[in-house]
Amino acid sequence: MKLALTIILISAAAFALISLAAGLVIYLLGIRRRPEVPVEEDSYGPYTERVLEGARWLDEQDMERLTLRSYDGLDLAGYFLPAEGARRGAMLLMHGYRSTFKVDFSCSAKYLHDLGYDLLMIKQRGCGESGGNNICFGVRERFDCRDWARLLAAREPAGTPLFLYGLSLGCATVLMATGLELPETVRGVVADCGYTSPHAEFVWLLKRGKVSFFWPFYLSFRFWTRLLAGWGAKECSALDAMAVNDRIPVIFFHGGADRLVKPKFSLENYLACRAEKELVIIEGAHHGTSLLENEEEYTAKLKAFLDKYGTQ
Questions:
Q1: 220-258 pLDDT, tens per residue?
Q2: Residue 60: how many CA atoms within 13 Å on its side-chain side?
Q3: Who's near 254: CB < 8 A, 6+ residues apart?
Q4: Homologous superfamily of 45-197+236-309 in CATH?
Q5: Which one of 44, 95, 181, 300 has the largest count of C-beta atoms within 10 Å of its C-beta?
Q6: CA atoms of 295 and 303, how far apart (whole Å)
Q7: d(Cα 78, Cα 69) in Å, to the nearest integer?
Q8: Count of CB atoms within 10 A of residue 163's CB?
Q9: Could you tell me the pTM of the whole model?
């Protein structure tokens, strides 16, 4: 009996240590900063040439580098591209997880620029030239979004319509930012393939991978993230922000074949939103590829939204 109990206790202690170690590894791999991958070295499947063409166009533009000191003391970087000719408004673009604006907005940036929008394309904290050692899945990035929006609004002529545009993690970020005090000139949000909360996204990835056995590893990961990065997966959510957002219209885009961030998340955010809203599901599109999969439908819906709410 004593031997059996000893074996059980030793096994439990060993599993607890393994869980702590596994959670730390997941934190280091998933949250900590990594070197930025050059656009040319990545692969974007059937959309590769279009992404690279858009990235090359961005490289050719004369952009102004801007910096921002975050609320928690980080130096953040962004690039400002003014519209040519008649200005219709300004757009703040926030990229996704460990990506860059040259990838996530490789095709939409030129389209928006040609429409007459000033573009401020930022490097998220923990990415590229921006400071920070951790990615925070929108928990802290939402404050960066707020502060970038304030900076952009201050640079623009009085009354210039301002839109927030985010993809994936950037989408969750701009949605969460609507729960904060944004400039009055923010007229709308373009929300492409975002999740409802970091916790919901992590749980979805666990379920999708059928790794429920590893729940102790996830709890350990949350422990290390709170301890070493200072934020929690349940700290805030896009749903909470949407529940109080009754002023800023939102258009939600999501790929119907998205397996990384399930389309139901955009539906849940859409249903929670109290402001004017629209939900567009692009059938056949995978994560972050809605514009690439059906450019005609995507741009038509996007332009109609901007035309409707961007009147000065």
A1: 999 999 999 999 999 999 999 999 999 999 999 999 999
A2: 9
A3: 192, 193, 261, 263, 265, 266, 267, 279, 280, 281, 282, 285, 290
A4: Alpha/Beta hydrolase fold, catalytic domain (3.40.50.1820)
A5: 95
A6: 12
A7: 11
A8: 27
A9: 0.94
